[in-house]
Design goal:
- This protein has helices at about 65-75, 90-95; strands at about 20-25, 30.
- The chain is mainly alpha-helical and about 110 residues long.
- A hairpin with a 5-residue loop joins strand 1 (about 20-25) and strand 2.
- The protein is flat and about 65 Å long.
- The relative contact order is 0.14.
Length: about 110
């Protein structure tokens, strides 16, 4: 039997760009354009060894709320015509690193 030729459709990818931002306050409410909630990591000085127990660490569920992203885009009057995907920024890293990683992951998808 002849092997069928693989047909690849060209996919144009654009560079990601920030359209808007949001933060989450202490009461877990969305703050639109809340850049003050996007602080840089400051590593605390602790008397404990933070590597202790790392071998037995179990990653917790990282489910997010896409509604916060969509609400922020709506508030910023971002035109979503022609937009195919809205995602958290790390999801595409997870997909692309899959062949090289032993970590398991899950992504929730919603079609509107």
């Amino acid at each position: 039997f002849p092997v069928p030729k693989l047909v690849r459709e060209r996919v144009d990818l654009s560079s990601p760009e920030e359209l808007t931002s949001f933060g989450v306050d202490e009461q877990r409410k969305t703050v639109l354009n809340g850049k003050e909630y996007l602080r840089a990591l400051k590593i605390p000085s602790t008397p404990q060894d933070l590597n202790e127990g790392f071998e037995t660490f179990t990653r917790q569920s990282e489910t997010g709320d896409l509604n916060r992203i969509l609400e922020s885009l709506k508030e910023a009057s971002v035109d979503l015509k022609g937009v195919n995907v809205v995602s958290f920024r790390n999801n595409f890293n997870k997909i692309m690193e899959t062949p090289y990683s032993r970590d398991s992951w899950m992504i929730s998808i919603t079609k509107s």
